[in-house]
Amino acid sequence: EDQVTQSPEALRLQEGESSSLNCSYTVSGLRGLFWYRQDPGKGPEFLFTLYSAGEEKEKERLKATLTKKESFLHITAPKPEDSATYLCAVQARGNEKLTFGTGTRLTIIP
Amino acid sequence: EAQVTQNPRYLITVTGKKLTVTCSQNMNHEYMSWYRQDPGLGLRQIYYSMNVEVTDKGDVPEGYKVSRKEKRNFPLILESPSPNQTSLYFCASVRGDEQYFGPGTRLTVT
User: Fold this and answer.
1) What pLDDT digit, counting tens, does each position of A77-91 carry?
2) How far apart are CA B86 and CA B95, in angstroms?
3) Which end of chain B, N or C, is more open, meaning fewer C-beta atoms within 10 Å of its C-beta?
4) Which of A46, A101, A103 minimises the CB distance to B99?
């Protein structure tokens, strides 16, 4: 059974204080690992897809990396508008289903 | 504007009273999916559809039905709702690796 564990559950940072969110996973043949952002009262919004170990993707202050066991979402010099819940999900090869973690709630304090 | 819409956004109902949550997308996507989101459990897939008249169970299908008579619409039907179906529901439309989520429907069953 595919599993995704995200840590920490919640993280409070001062504006400009860089940090990383962790997503550990087990999957029988990874097709893709996905990062989403979810704002309160809204649906998740797609950020990145990573396909193989060593791959990295960047978008503004966010950078996602992937190893064979985990993924990190690095946030550099965050701003208050980066406050959200960040969700990680995996998809196994030959399967359309996504398995989601429970998310990390990130708060950036001005 | 590309979007996924859901109705209603909020619903309070009583045990056993049949209800339908509608989902519509304007992106001509073939793959659509329903999720429920509960605290501490993350997003879990209820049903998915790979095309018109093609639907299949996700992880938590018990108590739910779906239909896909047209490409743009994918309604979720609760024929006899129970309190354990109180949750936040999201419809998603998929193109490639990117899932576009609707705004969510918060359902309370008393």
Assistant:
1) 999 999 999 999 999
2) 29
3) N
4) A46
